[in-house]
Automatic annotation (TrEMBL):
4Fe-4S in keyword set: no
Keyword terms: DNA-binding
GO molecular function ontology, one term from the record: DNA binding
Protein name: Putative transcriptional regulator
């Protein structure tokens, strides 16, 4: 799943470590989400959206893969 997390974080001028601390996750989790290696739980996705005052769909972009 693609996302705008890194863009939003950089616009606010915060480091991965700072965001991780606010969300009570590891910096590696933030890095993995930003790089598309990890999809957050729905609870974490809501926390991220609330932190940035955005809707989940404004941060995470679901693209259906054709079979």
């Amino acid at each position: 799943m693609k996302n705008n997390l890194e863009k939003l974080r950089k616009e606010r001028g915060i480091k991965q470590e700072e965001l991780a601390k606010e969300l009570k996750v590891s910096r590696q989790t933030i890095s993995s989400i930003e790089n598309g290696r990890y999809n957050p739980s729905i609870i974490l996705a809501f926390k991220i959206a609330k932190y940035f005052n955005k809707k989940i769909e404004d941060i995470f972009i679901y693209e259906e893969v054709e079979k």
